[in-house]
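User: Here's a protein and a ligand (adenosine monophosphate). What would the complex look like?
Assistant: Let me lay out the input and then the predicted complex.
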Amino acid sequence: MEDIENCIFCRIVRREIDSKVLLHDDHITAFDDINPVAPIHVLIVPNRHFGSLGDLQKGEESLLGMMVQTGYRLAKQLGVEKSGFRLVINNGPEAGQSVDHLHFHLIGGRRLGWPPG
Ligand code: AMP
């Protein structure tokens, strides 16, 4: 059983922890990463708690589409649609997931290397 009470992103969604929230609707919250790795670094999270991709059940896939669309809209709003940006999910320990609440990173505003480190 996940500890939704203490999940840091759940607490941001509930506005129990301060954060620079860029968007909040019925399904999704987007806020600035506290430790940005690029001039633009926004986290896009579902308001509902899912630990990772593996927790999404059949029928809940549309949430991912909404998150991607939100990422694209924010990229446009923040002026990196044309220059380029990444939408990334770190899923699991080897990918570097450090917060167990599903999220996309929207990263942009500088040239991004490939492959990632
Ligand atoms: P990941 O390592 O992919 O799980 O990403 C978690 C991200 O959450 C990291 O980039 C952290 O800097 C960020 N983060 C952790 N705590 C906070 C917070 N309180 N507010 C905003 N971002 C946070």
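Summary: The domain at 8-108 is CATH 3.30.428.10 (HIT family, subunit A).
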